[in-house]
Amino acid sequence: MTTVTVWNEYRHEREDDAVREVYPDGIHATIAEFLDDRGFDVQTATLDDPEHGLTREVLDDTDVLTWWGHEAHEEVSDEVVERVHERVLSGMGLLVLHSGHYSKIFKRLMGTSCGLKWRESGETERIWTVEPGHPIAEGIDECIEVPETEMYGERFDVPAPDTLVFTSWFEGGEVFRSGCCYRRGSGRIFYFRPGHETYPIYHQPEIQTVVANAVSWATPVDT
Amino acid sequence: MTTVTVWNEYRHEREDDAVREVYPDGIHATIAEFLDDRGFDVQTATLDDPEHGLTREVLDDTDVLTWWGHEAHEEVSDEVVERVHERVLSGMGLLVLHSGHYSKIFKRLMGTSCGLKWRESGETERIWTVEPGHPIAEGIDECIEVPETEMYGERFDVPAPDTLVFTSWFEGGEVFRSGCCYRRGSGRIFYFRPGHETYPIYHQPEIQTVVANAVSWATPVDT
Amino acid sequence: MTTVTVWNEYRHEREDDAVREVYPDGIHATIAEFLDDRGFDVQTATLDDPEHGLTREVLDDTDVLTWWGHEAHEEVSDEVVERVHERVLSGMGLLVLHSGHYSKIFKRLMGTSCGLKWRESGETERIWTVEPGHPIAEGIDECIEVPETEMYGERFDVPAPDTLVFTSWFEGGEVFRSGCCYRRGSGRIFYFRPGHETYPIYHQPEIQTVVANAVSWATPVDT
Amino acid sequence: MTTVTVWNEYRHEREDDAVREVYPDGIHATIAEFLDDRGFDVQTATLDDPEHGLTREVLDDTDVLTWWGHEAHEEVSDEVVERVHERVLSGMGLLVLHSGHYSKIFKRLMGTSCGLKWRESGETERIWTVEPGHPIAEGIDECIEVPETEMYGERFDVPAPDTLVFTSWFEGGEVFRSGCCYRRGSGRIFYFRPGHETYPIYHQPEIQTVVANAVSWATPVDT
Description:
Four copies of one chain form a homotetramer.
Chain A: E1 3-8, H1 12-15, H2 17-22, H3 27-37, E2 41-46, H4 56-60, E3 64-68, H5 78-89, E4 93-97, H6 104-110, E5 117-129, E6 143-153, E7 163-170, E8 175-184, E9 187-192, H7 205-218
Parallel strand pairs in A: 1-2, 1-3, 3-4, 4-9
Antiparallel strand pairs in A: 5-6, 5-7, 7-8, 8-9
Helix pairs in contact in A: 5-6
Pfam families (chains A, B, C, D): ThuA (PF06283)
InterPro entries (chains A, B, C, D): Class_I_gatase-like, ThuA-like, Trehalose_catabolism_ThuA_prok
Protein name (chains A, B, C, D): ThuA domain-containing protein
């Protein structure tokens, strides 16, 4: 059974009432719950845990790590970043969610700035499936509509994904490569755009399906 | 100097007053003119020419072929398609424009259905640059806006492009991989979405720049 | 459970004693047996069956089709090729084995000549794993050694694979991209080079592992 | 005209008579000379120059930087690495040569370990052209033979190249992806394997052709 560690910065939810209303126990609790419901073996870890909850022991026992961070990327210690980096290269899967695009670990793995355009105005996003036969798109229609979200726009400064699974349309006029697969070392990485802290996006069933599919896809092969 | 053959079905312009108003001498004449202005050695050929204007002699003398067709794809002879196919594999560049996505030659080279969604309602398109460092994007801003166009939407059933240069946003809610590079055999292929017959899109300077850049990019190397 | 149809031209084995000695009941029987041993639901079909054994009914019931052909590619009817092509685009997996590189269906899907260099001199091949984290490489060491084989050399005229899993070294001085993944339509295709009729290559356990892994990988997702 | 800065560690040549015999004025002098002969505007810089010869001013004036290093990768200052990294993302081309695979700048851009197998035994390498239509392969036959070289073998722990142009065969039984194109930010990167300090590989005309082609290919587009 795939062992998943759901990592969360867990600051917004403790600092901001509006966020807490959407994710009372933290974004990690919501993600952990729906992954647990789908049969994964799930644990959580957060920034303010000792070693950010990502000791060597925890990582060695993790098949897939999911990463949500936003305002405190710089507080993640370089030592832990290197530890996660090594584990990805040796096979651990990594899901980078939404504002995790600017995390140290994602920038470390991509080698680029990972910059993008953004605008926070609660606009509609439509996530189009570009590769319908990909396992991460299993059970997803041609399009997922997110009623209100923060916009992320191109150019997204990442290496061209090994496989592009989803591309987003935003009401205000932008597009974004929102579901990007990468292989690095022996590990698989999936960047998935949706999921701002002030919108209940991780409560949306199709988004949960994609995250769960991505966890399955990123599970390491036996070697 | 790169020798370009601009191929056009050339039916709409002779049958339909509205189209003739936009392209009085045919889409091919407009494309040929702006390529000639940019220093290419240009000739044209159309469906109703003998052998569609694509004799072995013409093709042997062509570095890059541009292709526009729409209502008469089926009238292109299989023999000429095979001839063009062979030339592409042996190095000739090919630009497939707009509704050329359903041409025999493009389907032959892609190996897929090349299907897509479409809607004709004169909506706005924004063509976002996804690879700003690519030679086909040279001189292009982060986005080209086409005020009125036919919509093409995903899923576009083509192989994942070797390089994705542009992605389009449409007012009505769709996205589209609108600038796709492929290598096949020793030849280079660029699919470029804009260019419906009832809109003056090939008169738009940024679109002309992309087409000219793509011709340069697709020019065969000496071997 | 994945349903596999193992297709074989099945001519060499009936015409040539040396081949029959290696594959007494045909290459398909050997492949079917080791896939059955690994828990797949397997059936076989051959060129000389009515409709080559590939009726619409059989194909509709097939998750993954494996293809071995060599001397009689031209005898495969265009109608059956179109039928298989449609099924791949709608999600069926396809494994193309060794000399199947020149089959009508592979050329139809690739859009290129699929040509390559070859030499038959019983030389050693070493199949190097280029993507150790890929599910098709699961359980495979850094290299599979095939003691005696026919050489296939670059340039292999195919589109750049979406993922390159294996690259072969040949004693006589050539290299070859020998494990190539493609997505076409909603289907997944894997080309795997080893497997000449006069060498017992499909009896080799590591080769069997790769074929079985590839069947799993190419199994369609639920849609 | 493309401005090239040829960077060299320049230690082996000063420390070791055998190396000095092959490259009396340093590897950089040899590379600079053949690029100058081909019409590029060339300057050189070495590790022991102030700021390694790579001041902001020099880099701002450089279209393409070529990088050769081996024994002193760790002596390159992190500040200069960041400076080069930024310039690549903003468009400067980068050619990474041979043992430069382990340079800080290449690892920074790739995000992986960049590890590989190696053996120094003066064996023959055959560099096969996998993409004959690519501009970096212009003028190159199907294969370049290097009579004596150090072996580099897979698995090469890099991201799958955006385009794989060459693959090497080694006498001792290994293969290697020896010509790899990457886009990162707005810049283009080419890794080219040949070129050990104790063999006269940069004196070989075909190798010089590839390096010169790669400089042309990596020259930034106007933006």
